[in-house]
Amino acid sequence: MNPVFLVARREVRERIKARSFRIATLISAAVVIAAIAIPASQRGHTPTYDVAVTTSSPAGASDAIKALAPTLKVHLNMHAVPTATDGGRGLRTGEYDVVINNGVILTKRAPDSGDTGKKAQLIAAISNLVRLQRLGPEAAAALQTPVEVRGVLPPDANSKDRFTAFVGVLLLFVFLQQYGTWVLMGVVEEKASRVVEVLLSAIRPRQLVAGKVIGIGAVAIVQGAIVALSAIVASTATGTHIFEGTSRFAILWILGWFALGYSFYALLYASVGSLVSRQADAQNAAFPVGLPILVGYFTASTLLSGSDPSLFARVLSYLPPTAPMVMPMLIGIGRASALQAFVSMALLIAATVAMARVAGAIYARAVLHTGQRLRLRQVLRRDFNAA
Question: What is the dihedral of CA 358, 362, 365, 370, to 10 degrees?
Fold first, then answer.
């Protein structure tokens, strides 16, 4: 069998059987379930929307819209307003959620094309209703004519996408701290116990480090999947629907950055772990690696408000060590274009490929060395004596 696969399978088996993994997974799942269930128990599960209809709208429009409530599983409070100007004023102050003015739908901000939330569903249902009311002698033209949905305020970043981005950054921060440390400590433990000498008699160093990174990454995916499944079950049971309104692209972006960020840092942690021979030195060796993670996380946290990012945040969104946390937040708040995101991701991919080569070289040269901690300059110049 492939040596990398054998090492990865060994890591998965040992890590999943560990008591620390089970306890951490149970605690994480319990926290997520509580965070969803407790707020849901303190409020109703059916959202309420205020819909205003202008006097210039067709007769019976208010009753027809009210009849949509059972199908959409929402409560609708209907209001009558004299003009669209009055309705727009109510939208800005939050008095109304949707205003219908003679076949035109007004809302505070037009929903995103990927929005699947209740309000977006309500607007889509009203749009279909307005289109049906146009049917008559010109039925075909009415079906082809889109109903105008106009926002009284300029479009803003999807708040759900912003929340999803922040949760993804938070999870990446926690997982990098936990599983990056696992990679580092695993390398140090094997080196201190000389198990690595036995392993290297059968496989090459680069295969060993690759298998370790892949195996521990698979464990991270298992734990993340368990926590995510717990969240989905809890949200379904309580009717919260945590992913409602979140575009699928936001979730895919987060998963992509998560995979790249873990790969980059796991390789970096593995190379740092090979430089030390004692567990007592591992924490000091890991500190420089964890520093960019902290900087990236705190910078991403400052972007949650959706305000214009600083030049510092813009620069960090392109640097590979901090890009996995800063760029997703810029995407979530709508402050980064697709081109900028792809450029940042391309730089991170190139850095990860380069890190794989460098980490493999460092690991191969330093993992059999025992005694005093090696310096990176020594390893790259090969001016040390392996014990």
Answer: 180
Half-sphere exposure of 121 (CA within 13 A, CB side): 14
Secondary structure class of 83 (helix, strand, coil): coil
Count CB-CB contacts under 10 A for residue 284.
Answer: 10
CA-wise closest residue to 160 among 77, 269, 244, 228: 244
Count of other CB atoms within 10 angstroms of residue 306: 15
Rounded to whole angstroms, the Cα distance separating 6 from 9 reads 5
d(CA 10, CA 229): 25
User: What are the tokens at 184?
Assistant: 């580092």
Q: Tokens representing 149?
A: 């949905």
Angle at 51 between CA 50 and CA 54, to 5 degrees: 140
Nearest partner of 184 among 295, 261, 320, 289, judged by Cα: 289
Question: Number of C-alpha atoms within 13 angstroms, CB side, residue 294?
Answer: 6
Domain ranges in the chain?
3-38+158-381, 48-151
Count the Cβ atoms, other than its own, within 10 Å of residue 197.
13
Query: Contact, 151 vs 160, CB < 8 A?
Result: no
- Distance between CA 329 and CA 338 in Å, rounded? 13
Which CATH fold topology does 48-151 show? D-Maltodextrin-Binding Protein; domain 2 (3.40.190)
How far, CA to CA in Å, does 347 sit from each of 89, 220, 298, 314, 351? 46, 24, 21, 14, 6
What pLDDT, in 10s, does the model give residues 111-141? 766 566 677 888 888 887 777 665 444 544 4
Q: What is the DSSP letter of 372?
A: S
Give, as one character, the DSSP assignment of residue 222.
Answer: H
pTM score above 0.85? no
- Distance, in Å, from the CA atom of 64 to the CA atom of 170, rounded to the nearest integer, reads 44
Give the separation between CA 9 and CA 46, rounded to whole angstroms.
46
148 secondary structure, DSSP code: P
**Residue 138 burial (10 A CB sphere; 0-12, 13-18, 19+):** exposed
Q: Nearest-CA neighbor of 177 among 297, 312, 353, 32?
A: 297
Which residues of the chain register pLDDT less than 70? 1, 39-45, 112-117, 132-148, 150-161, 239-250, 306-307, 368-387
pLDDT tens for each residue of 45-76:
677 889 888 887 777 778 888 888 888 888 88
Tokens 């790969």, located at residue: 263
